[in-house]
Amino acid sequence: MIPEPTASAATRASKQRKNSHDEANSSAVNQSEDESGNENRQKSARRRKRAHTGSENVKRKRAKASGSSRAGGSEHVEAVTLFQVLTMGRSAMQTVIDDWIEAYQKDRDTSLLDLISFFIQCSGCKGVVTAEMCQSGEDSELRSKMVEELDEVSGLQYKKFLAFPWILTVTWPLDTDNVEYPLIQSGPEGRWFFSEFCDFMSVLVSQCQHSVIFDSYLMNTLISLLTELSDSLVRAFRHTCTLAAVKLLSSLVAVALSLSVGIENITELQGKRAEIESMMDILFKGVFLKRYRDVLPEIRSICMEELGLWMKLYSSAFLNDSYLKYMGWMMHDKIPDVRLKCVLGLQGLYVDPQLLPKLDLFSSRFKDRLISMTLDKDNEVAVQTMKLLLLISRTSDDALSPEDHQQLLQLVYSSQRPLAAAAGELLFSRLLNTAGPTSDTEDEINEEDVHKQHTSRLKALLQFYQESELHKHVVYLVDSLWDVGAALLKDWPTLTSILLQDPSSQGPGCRGTITAGRSGAKKVMNAKERKIQNDDCTKLTDHFLVVLPKLLSKFSESSDCVASLMKIPQFFLPECPDSDNTQAVLALTAEMETVLERHAGPSVLEAAARTYLSLCGDGTASSSTARDARDSVVQSWVDKLTVLLGGSLKGDSFSADEEKTGDILATLKKLRAFHNCHNLLRWNLFELSSPLLSVESSEGGAPPEVLLEVLQCLSSCMIWSLSTSTDTLTSREKALAQRLQLRLFCERGHHCLSHSDPRVQQQAFLGVCDVLTAHSFQLQVWDPSCFGPLLYTPSPKLQRALSTFVCMHVFTGPDCESQSGVSGNSEEERLEELHKRRNMLAAFCKLIVHRVLEMSMAAEVFIYYMKYYNEFGDIIKETMCRTRQMDKIESARTLVLCLQQLLVRLKRVQESGGAHPGVQTFTSIRELARRFALSLGDQFKFRECVVMIHRNGIEFVFSEFSPTAETPTPPYLSYLPILSEFSSKLLKPDKKTVFSYLQRHTAEKVIDLREEGWQPLLYYRASLLAAAEGEDAASYVSSDRKYLPSRSKLQLEDQLQSKPSGKDSRHGSLFHPRGASCKEIQHPGNCPSILNEADDDTVEVEL
């Protein structure tokens, strides 16, 4: 917006008006646009009723001419500028532009200056526009005047350019490039201005096309103005005027199209059309050719978007290879939006059959680039390019070769669902649609022909899947075709008839709601889509309740096929009629029981357990029938396991042959899989299978595979028992029995942690952690009004065993990989092993977060934060955040304990003279302390924690130290540089307190600070002082070493500082968090002086 001109600008404009021979030959436009948006909205209703004038420079003249008529009491109508009309809608815009045209016909120079000012204001320029007339456009001195200068003294920038017959001068502040101009405003304001500005250009040309557009003055001046400003170094001018120029050209295209009516018979219209095409050619060469490769990506996008529109609307002039080449070149642009505009523009051309002959050369020249863009890093560009290639494939059979189609069709397995769906549409139209008539004609043929067509299409699809070697998951192929070929894929009778008749057919894949690993799918369905899905589920349920038992019987020998088939009932609609449903469910469960007798694989058992859970739901009509069938199956397994264990467990030993062991293992797998989904507590599996864990492995214990299943089964039993405590625990005796089971399970799990097989150890660890976490959670959500579970605390021996297990089996370096059994194996096995270790670490951290273990035990995990940051950094960081939310002080003590343990271990290794690969170096310990300090965040929030860390560190170094000839320095003096990493987190009032506390611990023990052994103390003191003054610690170290006070002077200084000052402290002391007593500091005589220390901004220490 243009504010009121300065005094100098006004004086300069008035002098120009006086010296001019003709008042019309020299004018100045000085405007101010300070009205707020609220005022414009309040006046918009009145302006729409009667929009007055569009000429700012003639509004005073018109006001004087009509003054007599308004004196009689008529209402005064406020003048509206062209820039203000953007806020008033399209109808008011037309009225104001009509008034501007009327003013232009009376005084075209003044009105043109108003239009020029409009473009300057739309560029966000807060400046002044002045003009001077030139007699001839061929004047040799004009080029010397076309400059863009900077006046650093006045803080203004000048641009002179020719808009014949004027030389225009635009003056604006120097910081224009740093200000957000209207076109780049964020949010709805920027989008609104873009739309209104484009509408203004369209309305301006449409309203002028029958009058002043052909006067050889308006358009020449306007084109000259936009051409010069679009070439400006100022971004705002260049962006705004390039948009105005290309929109002006688009509006001229519309005018040229309107002139095409009857052009063969009217010579005048032919001349007008030639004139319009001349204007378009000047704009294209003067603006587009300079700006389509502009450094600003928004300008490049605008140019390519409008070029596609010109070629589509006015193909006779623009649709040729001379213009198409710009589309092909800009498809290599590094900005995705520019490439997207090119592809969208080409889609508008290829969709019109009449334009295809002019696109043959372009298709052959840029075909390879289009195919490569299907793998674009921007998903939207890749999807739209695939849609463009689909149009090309449909319109021309020879445009894409068979190799090109083969490459494009493999994208049905893409991880991006929109791209895969577009490739699926190409697959359906290229291969499947040739096997029979399209879906539009299927209503006219009988059901038998539809069945034959679907059969041929399914066989073609199966052949494509078998020939494709890129991907082996049929689920992705089905999901890609679901949008375009839903009628084919939902033809359940045809699908099942092929499976039942063709002996070579494979079992089908099952499609879920969202394909794993594929993004971009629509996750929220509307009411119409939910109704369609409900109808599909109804048809699926009615058909597969009858056919599924036959399919299970036919493919019962293949575990993969029956696992996929048994997932189908999970998508059944619960609301089904009760008439034939019971018999169908009985037949289905009987066939599933037969399958479970043959197979004990994990995929089959998991599918069966989930299917039984779906059929036994309360909302299903045949839930009682399914429950009876499930109970019968489980009872048969329990009876079989009872008999097998009765003959295998004899006293404290386990003896069974290979066949019997296999039966025990298969039965335990089935019970474990069902116990994960179903509550089987009434069969008392805990008492039945727990004796297997009491047998010593050295005395003929159960095989590791059996122990794995037993541990998982017992863990499920305990979790189900804890989760149902509200309903089952009705007396103290039951609560005691549950706690006894919990203690027994933890003891057996603790015993299994020392088993020889690593798999048994890991499963025992995970089982104990999960059960203890579930017990803690149950205590937290327990309703006091009901009888809940009793508290159980794991023994200290078990807690130490869990902590040791984590350190030995989770934090293993490259030298320990042989222990985990993955040395030299493939990358997939290494990642699987890492996944197991992450699960074990997460299970242990849950015990700390749920307060099962003491927070101090987290120190054993925190010490590996930096060493294993890439593998477990996210888990450890989340644990630190959770513990900090529980108790900030205790969490800070844990960090201190972690650093001190690392330093003690390093000291022991150094004293022993050996080298241990698991011990971290001093540099790594200090880096860990720096990370801990960064995690503290807000200084005010963690003020108490930081002070406690410093106090604890000083006590750790000096509390038990007495200087002797053998030990002149404390053994852990090197901890002070580590502690200095937390100095920057101290607040200014606390730095003096910490420094004074350090003085009291060192005054009696420091012999001579000039000795090299006291360098860590000097560095720590310097870090406190440097943090207080905001300087570097190294300078304080050097100044400390120049002159150090003697021991007697330090004692005197300590005595002087220990006297009560009598002043009230301005900041509360945080040196003793939670009211810690003075005895904790081990200097009771000095405690009052520390607490009553004056809180000054500086620390007076003589150096």
TrEMBL record:
Signal peptide: none annotated. Component of cohesin complex, a complex required for the cohesion of sister chromatids after DNA replication. The cohesin complex apparently forms a large proteinaceous ring within which sister chromatids can be trapped. At anaphase, the complex is cleaved and dissociates from chromatin, allowing sister chromatids to segregate. PROSITE patterns: SCD. GO terms for biological process: cell division; chromosome segregation; sister chromatid cohesion. Pfam families: HEAT_SCC3-SA (PF24571), SCD (PF21581), STAG (PF08514). Part of the cohesin complex which is composed of a heterodimer between a SMC1 protein (SMC1A or SMC1B) and SMC3, which are attached via their hinge domain, and RAD21 which link them at their heads, and one STAG protein. Belongs to the SCC3 family. One of its GO terms (cellular component) is chromatin. This is Cohesin subunit SA. Keywords: Cell cycle, Cell division, Chromosome, Chromosome partition, Nucleus. It is found in: Nucleus; Chromosome; Chromosome, Centromere. It comes from Dissostichus eleginoides (Patagonian toothfish). Coiled coil: none annotated. GO terms for molecular function: chromatin binding. Residues 288-373 form the SCD domain. Residues 43-52 have a biased composition (Basic residues). PANTHER family: COHESIN SUBUNIT SA, STROMAL ANTIGEN. Residues 1-73, 1051-1098 are annotated as: Disordered.
